[in-house]
Write a structure and sequence with these properties.
single chain; 128 residues; 7-stranded mixed β-sheet; 4-stranded antiparallel β-sheet
Length: 128
């Protein structure tokens, strides 16, 4: 069983930055595909970013269009951590952000149903 714990959310002004962290348990974390999703009040949960296992220095990541160029997903396998660096934040980025993971797969994943593990979420609020 894998446990995911997010942290780093908070209140920030528009144009500011935050870095979300997701701590993962499990010995095979480095082989997991990881993702970030978000859910705003009254809205469905939506994909934000994903990163898959890499056996070399190549980064295999994907982003939803609304965050591409502003957000960066990256991982530190030695620490069992995945991060979401969020820059140039906008009020529409306000949501609860969730970390997700899935093992035994070698691709990036953008759909909720393909992830097996989820964190409890962390609130991000961007004021205008």
């Amino acid at each position: 069983q894998v446990q995911l714990v997010e942290s780093g959310g908070g209140l920030v002004q528009a144009g500011g930055s935050l870095r979300l962290s997701c701590a993962a348990s499990g010995r095979t974390f480095s082989s997991y595909t990881m993702g970030w999703f978000r859910q705003a009040p009254g809205e469905e949960r939506e994909f934000v970013a994903t990163i898959r296992y890499s056996g070399d220095r190549t980064t295999y990541a994907g982003y939803t269009d609304s965050v591409r160029g502003r957000f960066t997903i990256y991982r530190d396998n030695a620490k069992n951590m995945v991060y979401l660096q969020m820059n140039s934040l906008k009020p529409e980025d306000t949501a609860v952000y969730y970390c997700a993971g899935r093992g035994d797969i070698l691709k990036t994943i953008t759909t909720i149903r393909e992830y097996d593990y989820w964190g409890q979420g962390t609130q991000v609020t961007v004021s205008s």
